[in-house]
Design goal:
The complex is a heterodimer of chains A (206) and B (271). Chain A is mainly alpha-helical. Chain A is built from 9 helices and 6 strands; from the N terminus they run αβααββαααβααββα. Chain A folds into 2 domains: 103 residues, Arc Repressor Mutant, subunit A (Orthogonal Bundle); 77 residues, no CATH class. In chain A, strands 1-3-2 form a 3-stranded antiparallel beta sheet. About 17% of the residues of chain A have low confidence. Chain B has 271 residues and is of the alpha/beta class. In chain B, the strands form 2 sheets. In chain B, strands 6-7-8-3-9-10 form a 6-stranded mixed beta sheet, sandwiched between helices. In chain B, strands 2-1-4-5 form a 4-stranded antiparallel beta sheet, covered by helices on one side. The chains are: A mainly alpha (206), B alpha/beta (271). At the A-B interface, helix 1, helix 5, helix 8 and strand 5 of A face helix 4 and helix 5 of B.
Chain lengths: 206, 271
């Protein structure tokens, strides 16, 4: 697993996984890039981030979904977020960040502290730090105050699936697969939410 | 009854060199649960057509009916997603999403949960207090989408919503648009997407309207009956792309299947 954190947004990484899915889940990296008329190095950051989150493995220039990656791409917008959160929390960088946030007196980290922590695992260039902040926000791990450049802890969602303000899965965000016309009404739900395991475990067990 | 009926629409502008006709005799219908894509070369009046449908601009001749009623003035039952996102830079994500609801006169107590709901479904949770400048292009367009959906429009109009985005980001947003569209619990009842990307139109829509060069008129209306999610590498997809490409480049209406040609080689390119 790469230890550096490449500069790719969550949306770009999801785009790469959607693309890989349209290649049946395994493809030569050069052909993936070619499909979008991109240079190969333009898709590397997104690919590397997918590797960091263990959604994809790359061997001999070929990218292949892990089981979790396969389930991630079939999951709903909301469930994908949960997987990202779980997977980020398994990385040294986010573990360290969250521990520092929890331990800070007012549960906030200054810009300087943030740079310090990021520099333990990757180059603390501003753009890369901002990218890390972006991932943490996407995964709802912390808030960021842009005016004061502070990271702020937010109430930890133990699991959104068990929180009361979330409606039960309706199967509405369905995986398509129905005919070409109209809106899907009967296909299987994109993912099934159980009440206990983390999103990654739930998707992995599904 | 059709959700939207466009009847014999003409639009022209006066200029120093006489009148310029943008589109001529455009007629079509949009039904409930319809996802219609409008494709055509640049300058064919695609975006103008969307503006006319929403009532942001008036046709020179012809009319637009929404559930049988003529559209005169801005139709509140429709919302637009713009290529340029059109966010207010001084407002946070939440405030941008709330904007349309405030304009409709919703009370603050009703606005807050509505904003939360659409921030949640579009995957924007965590960015509520961010300003647009802090967001990537993909996140900005999610805000544009959340703002449009929050008013729970009957018809969602999308004007080249992915063309200002990098290729990977566009790939992910197309996937998410389809997810949201396939959720029967969410608005809208119908989508009209304007795009110059033929593959995008065929990937997303139930029907593709092909417009000619200016003055724009409808060359063909092609139902896309491939099951979703659509495989862009399948021969059926390829044939469909080829057919639309040929229509546009040859600029004349045809009937029946087009012979396969070299068109598809270039069909993925922007027109």
């Amino acid at each position: 697993m790469p230890t550096a954190y490449p500069k790719a947004s969550p949306t770009e990484m999801i785009g790469l996984l959607v693309l890989l899915n349209s290649h049946k889940g395994s493809e030569d990296v050069a052909l993936l890039a070619d499909d979008l008329d991109l240079e190969i190095d333009e898709i590397f950051p997104a690919l590397e981030f997918a590797e960091v989150l263990k959604l994809v493995t790359v061997h001999d220039g070929r990218a292949t979904f892990t089981d979790l990656g396969k389930r991630f791409v079939a999951a709903s917008i909301r469930d994908r977020k949960e997987v990202v959160r779980d997977q980020l929390l398994r990385t040294t960088l986010f573990k360290t960040l969250m521990r520092a946030l929890d331990g800070a007196p007012d549960h906030t980290l200054s810009d300087e502290q943030l740079h310090q922590i990021v520099s333990l695992t990757t180059a603390p260039a501003d753009a890369l730090v901002q990218n890390i902040v972006n991932w943490g926000r996407y995964a709802e791990l912390f808030r960021y105050d842009a005016a004061d450049q502070r990271l702020i802890a937010r109430p930890r969602p133990s699991s959104r699936a068990s929180s009361t303000n979330r409606p039960p899965p309706t199967g509405g965000l369905s995986g398509g697969g129905s005919g070409g016309s109209g809106r899907a009404t009967s296909s299987t739900p994109r993912s099934t939410i159980s009440q206990t395991a983390t999103a990654s475990e739930r998707l992995a067990a599904a | 009854m059709a959700l939207i009926r466009v009847e014999h629409l003409d639009k022209s502008f006066p200029s120093r060199h006489g009148t310029i006709s943008i589109m001529q005799d455009i007629s079509f219908e949009v039904k409930d649960s319809d996802f219609v894509a409008i494709v055509g070369p640049s300058g064919c009046g695609k975006s103008t057509l969307l503006r006319l449908i929403q009532g942001l601009d008036r046709p020179t001749a012809g009319r637009i009916l929404f559930r049988g009623q003529p559209v005169d003035g801005v139709a509140r039952q429709m919302a637009m997603v713009f290529q340029s996102f059109a966010l207010y830079p001084w407002l946070t994500v939440s405030q941008n999403v709330a904007f349309g609801l405030e304009a409709l006169g919703w009370s603050p107590e009703r606005i807050a949960p509505q904003v939360e709901k659409y921030i949640d479904v579009t995957g924007l949770d965590g960015f509520q207090e961010a300003f647009p400048r802090e967001l990537s292009g993909g996140m900005r367009q999610r805000v544009g989408l959340a703002r449009a959906l929050a008013v729970e429009p009957s018809v969602l109009l999308m004007d080249e919503p992915f063309s200002a985005l990098d290729a990977l980001t566009a790939e992910s947003l197309r996937d998410e648009i389809l997810q949201l569209w396939q959720d029967p619990a969410l608005p809208p009842d119908a989508v009209i997407l304007v795009t110059h990307n033929i593959e995008e139109a065929i990937e997303l829509a139930d029907r593709v309207l092909v417009l000619s060069r200016r003055p724009g008129h409808i060359l063909a209306e092609i139902p896309i009956e491939l099951p979703r999610p659509r495989d862009r590498k399948s021969s059926a997809f390829y044939d469909m792309t080829d057919r639309v490409y040929s229509l546009i480049t040859e600029g004349r209406p045809t009937t029946g299947a087009e012979p396969a040609g070299e068109g598809a080689e270039r069909a993925g390119q922007m027109l």
